[in-house]
From TrEMBL:
Single GO BP term: proteolysis
Protein name: MPN domain-containing protein
Source taxonomy: Eukaryota, Metazoa, Ecdysozoa, Arthropoda, Hexapoda
Originating organism: Phaedon cochleariae (Mustard beetle)
Keywords: Coiled coil, Hydrolase, Metal-binding, Metalloprotease, Protease, Ubl conjugation pathway, Zinc
MPN domain mapped to chain residues: 10-152
Protein family according to the UniProt entry: Belongs to the peptidase M67A family. BRCC36 subfamily.
Length: 260
């Protein structure tokens, strides 16, 4: 049964938000998913999300995602490792997934899944990123995000929106590692998917056909994910180096003024 205790606010680190959006934009045909890590203020009922785990999809679907117990266990181990490394509380406190080409609002399946998690952790939270929504008037793609929990309605579970605050933060090393690992996860998903198809067929022509689609999928990942990611990280590095030079110049001026 869902507890009466519920979240009042979720504070999401900007670098985690960037990872979630980057992950959501990798495909417009299936939903993606991941788990959110951080700590919860049990007194104020406020979640602080500072890291995430990108999950490997064993079954790609355009309208639903599922998180296996094994994935939850792996994410919990990762949270424990981060906790020891950062010397602060860190655990799995939520999940996220995407809605390509549809609205940001959770479906009844999403709300049911959220309700299930809340039976184990009352302050567990869900984030949904709506991507690839075309605005014909502005000729742009919109990205929307909603933060929600499930609550007990009159006859069924209902969505309850939670205030979401995106907090400015630098790109932490552990989140940088998560971004860098994204192409490897996507490639492994494609390899597993096409290998399963090859195992189910003895036809040489069908096998050749599957190999060609696997190659196309790999090319798509390189051109649409890896290259833009490298460009983005390169721009970040340039910005950081410029900032370092600016600060060094400022320090030098302050030292000269103090000598005078």
């Amino acid at each position: 049964m869902i507890s009466e205790k519920h979240l009042k606010k979720v504070i999401l680190a900007a670098d985690v938000y960037a990872i979630c959006v980057q992950h959501a934009l990798t495909t417009e045909k299936q939903e993606i998913m991941g788990l959110l890590l951080g700590e919860v203020d049990e007194v104020e009922c406020i979640s602080h999300i500072t890291a995430c785990v990108i999950l490997h999809r064993s079954d790609k679907q355009p309208d639903r995602v599922e998180i296996s117990p094994e994935q939850l266990c792996t994410a919990s181990v990762h949270a424990e490792q981060l906790q020891a490394k950062l010397d602060r509380p860190m655990r799995v406190i939520g999940w996220y997934h995407s809605h390509p080409h549809i609205t940001v609002w959770p479906s009844h399946v999403d709300i049911g899944t959220q309700g299930m998690y809340q039976t184990m952790e009352p302050l567990f939270v869900g984030l949904i990123f709506s991507v690839f929504q075309n605005d014909s008037r502005l000729r742009t793609n919109q990205i929307q995000v909603t933060c929600f929990q499930a609550s007990r309605g009159v006859s069924q579970l209902e969505r309850r929106e939670v205030e979401l605050v995106i907090q400015s933060s630098p790109l932490q090393n552990y989140n940088l590692e998560g971004i860098a690992d994204l192409p490897r996860i996507l490639i492994q998903e494609e390899v597993d998917c096409h290998d399963d198809k090859d195992n189910n067929t003895q036809d040489e022509l069908a096998s050749l056909h599957n190999d060609s689609f696997k190659t196309l999928a790999m090319v798509h990942i390189v051109s649409k994910v890896v290259r833009p990611l490298c460009d983005d990280l390169g721009e970040r590095m340039t910005t950081v180096n410029q900032r370092i030079k600016s600060l060094e110049k400022m320090i030098k001026q302050l030292q000269e003024n103090s000598d005078d």
